[in-house]
Amino acid sequence: QVVADHLGIDQETIQVTATRTDKVPNTSPTAASSGSDLNGMAALTAARKIRQRLEIFLRETYQTSAEVRFSRGLVRVGGNEITFSELARRAWFARVPLSATGHYATPDIGWDPKTGKGRPFYYFANGAAVTEVAIDTLTGVPKVLRVDILHDVGKSLNPAIDLGQIEGGFVQGMGWLTSEELVYSSAGELLTHGLSTYKIPTATDRPEMHIHLWDGANPREMLYQSKAVGEPPFMLAISVHSAICHAISSVSSDSKFWPQLNAPATPQEILRCVQCAANGS
To answer: What DSSP state is assigned to residue 66?
Structure first.
């Protein structure tokens, strides 16, 4: 999408291949919500190099200093118009280099583990969530009914993808705080080692969701002023745990009661806290 937008061509004309060290020996992995930030910026850097060469070639060809515009598969300069594919063909015959390498390293970050000081992040993503839950006071089984989310993704690169990332991150976090329990035997053996015992959320656990993107650009110089959106929404699910605590506290006659609810808030854990609320302990 980034390369297509910069060169003014359809996304369908862009081919993405798997990462290989014979192409880029020190590429960054798609991890830690850095895929768009690092790889997107690197792709944009390479696309800028190619576009700049094409602009120089066009100005020399048409003997003009006019602005070159790339849009919808067409290239315009000084009253002249040709297709991008024709431009690429002419540039190839003129021996203009049509390949480029881009690399991006996040600036102004660093961390000293010995002193515990530094700047590990270039910017921060923010979000807010309001969650409604119901709990069965006889079994301790919780049910997340609804969630309203407002999340800051900077200037969204792709709203549809960003909304999906927020939804997925929230549901993952919901599982982390409610059902995904690590259980060990007395010998230290992990017992919840598969999907039959380690309970992750399924489609039936998805609550009614209302997600909105914060309308604002990243003040830092990032890819089209966007922000990472892979893992930050994960933390919005803390509202699920807080909502369960509120539900448990409503059982108590003491308005100041607040349950000591451990995470994950499994039915057993919730039932223990419900009994404490009912008994005033």
So the answer is: P
